[in-house]
Amino acid sequence: MISRDPTMPVRAIRRLAGRRTAVTIISILATGCSRPDRGIPPSIEFTRLPPAGEGSSAITFPIQGRVKGARGGQRIVLFARDGLWWVQPLVEKPFTAIERDSTWKSSTHPGSAYAALLVDTDYQPAATLNELPLVGGAIHAIATADETILERAPTKKIEFSGYEWVVRQTPGNPAGIPNRYASANAWVDRDGLLHMRVEKQADGWTSAEASLFRSLGYGSYRFVVRDISQLDPIVVLAISSWDGSGPYREMDIEISRWGEAAGKNAQYVLQPYYVPANVVRFLAPPGRLTYSFDWEPGRAAFRTVRGGGDEPGAPVVASHVFTSGVPLPGSETLHLNLYVFGDEKRVHLRQTVEVIVEKFEYLP
User: Fold this and answer.
1) Cα→Cα distances 279→86, 219, 266, Å
2) 104 in helix, strand or coil?
3) Pairing state between β 84-88 and 163-167
4) 185 by DSSP, 3-state: which?
5) Is residue 74 within 8 Å of residue 120, measured between CB atoms?
6) What pLDDT does 51 receive?
7) What's phi and psi for 291, nearest 5 deg?
8) pLDDT of res. 21
9) Which of 150, 160, 164, 178 could link 58 by a cystine bridge, Cβ 3.0 to 4.6 Å?
């Protein structure tokens, strides 16, 4: 309310009231749209990061941060890297709001690295990216966090066939199927044999994976495996070489019926598997078998023979040579993965599944 001075004209009083009203409105607008970072170059920082991990559609972690220099209406777009960069938390929900105090929070599926982009309202993110975009146009700032700063679960190391391997303890997503892993499911016995198990725990089945610490590149790879002809149809033994730098830098020897009760139980694969020429299926017979692949520029020759591979004239079970789509070396590592192919809520394994790998050999 304005107190009227008896000597003040009515028009003056109205002008004064108008000025005070205008000042009040400006003050409210300034309070509601406070931009303390005006004039500061836009930037993003993470205040909470998930651990590094292999991508999984069944797992999410909280992720949080803060922005400086953001303008009204701008938003955050998150990506997690699992081979490709995948928008987070969902393709249908790719935007994260910036709060009044310049903070943001969301969730993300696990990845080997994470990225946050400060974008305008008209920016439409792709579901996947081979590489992150550069700052410019509708993108005003980018922050990334990779393996060098992300936490990882404590590692269990084993020595097998003269090489150091790391045993997976974190959830994974082989063949697009969520699997949980236990470090106790992979070990080397006193005779130097590698044992891998799929085993029941109180909260469900757990799988096993052992991976080399370093890349070996071109050369000859050989694995002697004891009889797995009776492997449960929903269990997979995968011998794979991949590095996660792209979706198709991968070669596999896979022993599984993929849930089918009968039929061929093994295959050689170059990724992508959906190219018909990239998959060759065969029947692995009972008994001790040696699986191998020779990798050289433009050529990957796969072979399976009976026995330990040292016997002269060992019968050949299957072989195939790929000359198209053969990957180049990068930072790939070798993975031995024994896992369950199927939703664990519907898995009906009757007992523990164990595979024994007697020996691994590599010749450059």
Assistant:
1) 26, 21, 10
2) strand
3) unpaired
4) helix
5) yes
6) 85
7) -105, 135
8) 39
9) 178
Confidence bin at 4 (pLDDT 50/70/90): very low
For 123-134, the DSSP string reads ----SEESSPPP
**ω before 329 within 30° of 0 (cis)?**
no
**What token pair was written down for 139?**
């993108």
Using DSSP, state whether 190 is helix, strand or coil.
coil
Q: Residue 221: which residues within 8 A CB-CB, separation 6 or more?
A: 241, 292, 293, 294, 295, 334, 360, 361, 362
| Integer Rg of the chain from CA | 29
Nearest to 106 by CA among 43, 48, 45: 48
In sequence order, what are the beta bridge partners of 319? 303
Q: Which two tokens stand for residue 149?
A: 């700063």
Distance CA 129, CA 92 (A): 16
Cβ atoms 270, 253 nearer than 8 A: no
- CA gap 179, 18 in Å, rounded: 68
- Percentages (nearest 5) of helix, strand, coil residues in the chain: 10, 45, 45
Counted residue by residue, the chain has a size of 364
Q: Which pLDDT does position 150 carry in this prediction?
A: 81
The per-residue DSSP string of 14-59 comes to HHHHHHHHHHHHHHHHHHHT--TTTTSPPEEEEEE-PPP----TT-
SS (H, E, C) 200-247: EECCEEEEEEEEECCCCCCEEEEEEECCCCCCCCCEEEEEEEECCCCC
Q: How far is CA 241 from CA 40, 146, 311, in A?
A: 46, 22, 26
What's the rounded Cα separation, in Å, for the pair 302 and 220? 10
CB-CB neighbours of 352 under 10 Å: 11
pLDDT at residue 336 tops 90? yes
Query: What's the rounded Cα separation, in Å, for the pair 239 and 252?
Result: 6
User: Tell me, what's the pLDDT at 172?
Assistant: 79
Tokens found for residue 332: 């790939």
Please tell me what DSSP assigns to residue 274.
T
Position 76, amino acid: I
Mean per-residue pLDDT, 306-332: 91
Q: What is the largest CA-CA distance in the chain?
A: 121
